[in-house]
Description:
Elements: H1 7-11, E1 35-44, E2 47-61, E3 67-78, E4 89-93, H2 102-109, E5 112-115, E6 128-131, E7 141-146, E8 154-155, H3 167-184, E9 192-198, H4 199-215, E10 221-227, H5 232-235, H6 242-257, H7 268-288, H8 295-309, H9 313-318, H10 325-331, E11 338-340, E12 348-350, H11 363-382, H12 424-433, E13 438-444, H13 452-460, H14 466-469, E14 472-477, H15 487-506
Amino acid sequence: MKKLISFASFLLFSVTPALYAQPLPLPDSVAKPEKFVTKHSIKIDGKLINYTATAGTIVIKNEKEESVAVIGYTAYTKDAETDITKRPVTFAYNGGPGSSSMWLHLGVIGPRRIVVNDPGLNGPPPYKLEDNNYSILDVSDIVLIDPVGTGFSHATGKSKNTDFWGVDQDIKSVSQLIKQYIMDNERWNSPKYLLGESYGTFRSAGVADYLSQNMGIAVNGVVLVSSVLDIRSLAFLPGDDLSYIVNLPTYAATSWFHNKLANKPADLYAFLKEVRNFAGGEYAAALIKGDQLPAAEKEQVLNKLAGYTGLSKDYLDKANLRVLQPQFSKELLRNDRTDIGRLDARYKGISQDLLGEYAFSDPADNAISPAFISTFMNYYTTELKVNKEKTYNTAAYAFPDFKWDWKHQRGNGLFGDAATPNTGPDLANAMSLNPQLKILVLNGLFDLATPFYGTEYTFDHLGLDKKLKNNITMKYYEAGHMMYISNTAAAAFKKDVAAFIADGIKQ
């Protein structure tokens, strides 16, 4: 029998094998920053923008002024800006943990964008790269960061990559990179934004707090793309029903999309409001009763679950009302010999295991990863003129010693690091210390990796002062985890983020 994947690997942004080579640690005297600088131009909404692209590395040091890591980044800065105090800079990264920034880079943030067939197959090359009209370069400079183990980033001196592979270690090193970039490029007085995706949102909460508490840097805003701050909401822990509750509305949205509902509602958003009410009410109340749930009440909940999810009553009964995400992804279209995507449940793939209980392969990841990886590697060495002899790691997952340290002190409860990690308290602290800090949360309705109701639950349980709740804006797209691969969602993404940055400057 196949073993269910651990919650750590379950969270990973992508499971595609990385292109990697283990860089040898550099002596302290050899670790030096590098830059590959090119000039470009682009039209965004008809307006010509001349810009400089810098693919480079920054050396970060410890308290003894010893070099501990070389961290890579790609910066896009608008040329001829006379007053950079009025020009925002956005620091962006993907998640994993263990993913490079390649996805946001070519998906929506950078000035060039890969064209993918959404939601469908992309197949082998050639792939198309075009000017990105959805880039935020017209409203903000952009710095895309590759954490240690990804991109060109690696430990140096006496350090090892494993020294940086952990919640708190990662927060610190990314914060150090941001501070050093600000120092090197004299951006202390520029408006500053963080934009993270998936685990990158988990990171952003910690970075926003760390920058404020340890480096005296207050950020203007944080954009959370496909957010997860509380790992408990994704973990499906034994005896803990939260994950089942917060996943249910996304199960319902997925069944709606694939026409598996007996009486499909016309209005998706009204339908999901109804499912939320059931999930947080009658369903949650039934689950909390455990094996004390009366038979009549269980029958009533079973009927509603079947109606909302498209799964059979018999299957739901055997599951004891509790269906794991990979079970749902396998079962919904089982009779069609099809698995559905985790990153994006609109995607479908051929099922290789018709008797299997879990969908281990992700059709969404399979459909887009080769296109992104091939196009990015070609773009980096041709258009950005990066030395072909340098190895860019699209992800850290293939390193034999890659393992994440999930301990996070601020998120600990009464039993210390026995708790699942949570950077919600970090974000709440950052917002309390800086009441002008604004948060934009972007959700994909068909995202089974970081379900939107889980995000809503987390924000409803931050314990924020009521006045600070007005600083949080939620947006929703009819797409998945990487909502921006949809042209319609990408246009909305750009509009929402650009407006958020502009509003932050006015405050």
